[in-house]
């Protein structure tokens, strides 16, 4: 038997939410949803139902990027280049800048060959080694 973190009742039937809380089935039905993207149980106020022409899914606020962006990101092979505030797709060698919160700016990517000498000189040794390893 486990104790539900919501109602404090003992229960045999429970889920474990994204913050590792034990939640009985009754509280889970009232207050939680299952995110189809990350596979976690999260509070209902953090859930969003996304409908497209052929599918309905529930996603948490961490996973609620637009479906098109999610598909694009899944098709890329991105590695961070923290020293220059960018990500690089090691399949196409397109460098994408980061916005303030490390969100990738997919609209302003440039090919590595088109990056300036100044930009390359700002790159740390560890980021250069990452690139060299991927070449």
Task: Explain what this protein looks like in three dimensions.
With 135 residues, the chain is an alpha+beta fold. The protein folds into two domains: 2-60, no CATH class; 76-134, no CATH class. The chain has four helices and twelve strands, in the order ββββαββββαββββαα. It has helices at residues 25-31, 67-75, 117-122, 125-134; strands spanning 2-3, 10-11, 14-16, 22-24, 32-34, 41-43, 47-51, 56-60, 78-81, 86-89, 94-97, 110-111. It starts with a strand and ends with a helix.
Helical proportion, percent range: 10-25%
Number of strands: 12
Q: What is the strand arrangement across the widest sheet? A: 9-10-11-12
Please tell me the total number of domains: 2
Morphology call: elongated
Query: How does the helix and strand content classify structurally?
Result: alpha+beta
Distance between the termini: 54 Å
The ordered string of helix (H) and strand (E) elements is: EEEEHEEEEHEEEEHH
Overall mean pLDDT stands at 83
Largest sheet: 4 strands, antiparallel
Count of helical stretches = 4
Overall radius of gyration = 21 Å
How much of the sequence is in beta strands?
A: 25-35%
Unreliable parts: none
Top keywords for this entry?
4-stranded antiparallel sheet; alpha+beta; 4 helices; two-stranded antiparallel sheet; single chain; 135 residues
Question: Can you give me a brief rundown of this structure?
Answer:
Helix content is 24%, strand content 30%.
